[in-house]
Amino acid sequence: MTKVIKFYATWCGPCKVYAKTFDKVEKSITEIYGTVEFLNVDIEKDTTGLAAQYKVGNIPFTVVEKDGIVKTHTGRMSEDKLNSFILDE
User: Which residues are catalytic?
Assistant: First the structure.
């Protein structure tokens, strides 16, 4: 299963803009594939240690974990770029 994690903070302007894109992509991929897990992690409320595990330094920060391979991206992405990032297109 593919896991997609978006790290953000509520005070982060770019994170707010990116949230809309992330939500659109999550909805479309979930409808088509259904086997992708999407997580949103507020770095200030992260009690799971995921931010530390993935060494999140700047936000927004996106992680895609698929078949044991981890890819990361710092900053916003367009819908097309995020789709490609998740689906390896």
Answer: 12, 15
